[in-house]
Design brief:
Blueprint: H1 3-6, H2 8-13, E1 26-28, E2 31-35, E3 45-49, H3 61-82, E4 86-90, E5 100-106, H4 133-151
Antiparallel strand pairs: 1-2, 2-3, 3-5, 4-5
Helix pairs in contact: 3-4
Length: 152
Amino acid sequence: MNEHETCYPCARQAELDDLPPWEQIVRHRGWRLVHAYNTCLPGWLVAVAERHVDPFSALTTSEAASLGPLVRAASTALADELGCARTYMIVLGESVDHVHAHVVPRMPDLAEAQQGLGVFTLLDRPATEWVSEAERDRLALALRPRIRELLN
């Protein structure tokens, strides 16, 4: 079995031509920015390494260097689009053995219990609470030109 068969991000990377907008907001120097599917928080983005790599220390110098500008551009675009007070950038690597970084909008009215690492209570909720695919696509298409502009 290769990583495309066992690793969700790799399987999605192998299907780039068929991915919806929310699964390929932008691609940038070894990273693919996506909207999380299993969240009830609009704008929860994830920067996913385009190649199978784990742990974080195994990134190339180029991959590591390009993550910062991507996260900054995503954070700026989220602030412009959603009016978030700040964004969190979180790299944990426990649930998926593939380097990825969460870029999470912290909205001004977010309950205190859901701030900081408490924001993860907004993931893996019942599917009926998830941001709809249509809304994920809408956000992706709204964020894409701003992020591309910031990366150039």
